[in-house]
Amino acid sequence: MANIAQPSVQSLLIEMKFNGQPLSTGTAFVVATVKGPHLITNRHNVTGRRQDTNAPLSPTGGIPNEIVVVHNRKGFLGQWVLKKEPLYAGDTPLWKEHPTLGALADFVALPLSDLTDVEVFPYDPSNPGPALFVGTADTVSVVGFPFGMTAGGAFGVWATGFLASEPEVDFNNLPIQLIDCRSRQGQSGSPVIAYRSGGMVAMADGGAAAFAGPVWKFIGIYSGRINAESDIGIVWKAAAVQQLIASL
Predict the structure, then answer these.
(1) Torsion from C-alpha of 6, 186, 14, 50, nearest 10 degrees
(2) Each residue's pLDDT tens digit, 199-227
(3) Strand ranges (E), the chain
(4) How far apart are CA 161 and CA 154, in angstroms?
(5) CB count, 10 Å around CB of 172?
(6) What domains can you pick out in the chain, each with its CATH number?
(7) Is the pTM of this model over 0.85?
(8) How far apart are the first and last CA of the chain?
(9) Which of 180, 216, 218, 221 has the most neighbouring CB atoms within 10 Å?
(10) What confidence category does residue 1 fall into, taking pLDDT thresholds of 50, 70 and 90?
């Protein structure tokens, strides 16, 4: 990818709409499944409702019935193509929720119906990357689109912070870990990664390994902050995302 970091193109800008009327923006990414490529994003993006109160997120009260995805154009890095995906077949949602957590889990998988002229750069939560050591206070990045903004073209914006909880411990008895990162509206649905630029890198087995170039590990999916006054963010773990993919 020349001098472009692959995670910058793996994050996709999305816009939720009702009958063509814009409601909100967010972030998503693609995964491969046995049923073809699926879009992973937050549940609250597709429902248009808060996870805790079920109240509409849009000040208009509108609930989305379609989503526009800004995909990478096939064969032309740095060009993009817009594709519209329906969210319902009649009254039936097209997205799939976590097989056991259901609506409690703030992430879903939406099948992609139109990939004509699209280049797909999927994440694979079952193989999240090299076994880097990522512990509390280590740096992680949320790659997405705060307030619908891009880093030029449709490249993702990198917001970097730190793991704020023990990776092996579940927050609120859910497969969630916390991060300390100044992330904001529009980054909901962003992949969260541990990105290392190369050289000697600490590994999960307690050793270290030398890498000639950048490496990264998929940590999970960002879904917002614990409250509006805090920079502590919620990340659903990669293993939980993989459970959803395996259930499709």
Answers:
(1) 130
(2) 999 999 999 999 999 999 999 999 999 99
(3) 12-18, 21-31, 38-41, 66-73, 80-86, 88-89, 92-93, 108-111, 118-119, 139-144, 157-163, 176-180, 191-196, 199-202, 208-211, 215-225, 232-237
(4) 22
(5) 10
(6) 6-119 (2.40.10), 139-238 (2.40.10.10)
(7) yes
(8) 31
(9) 221
(10) low
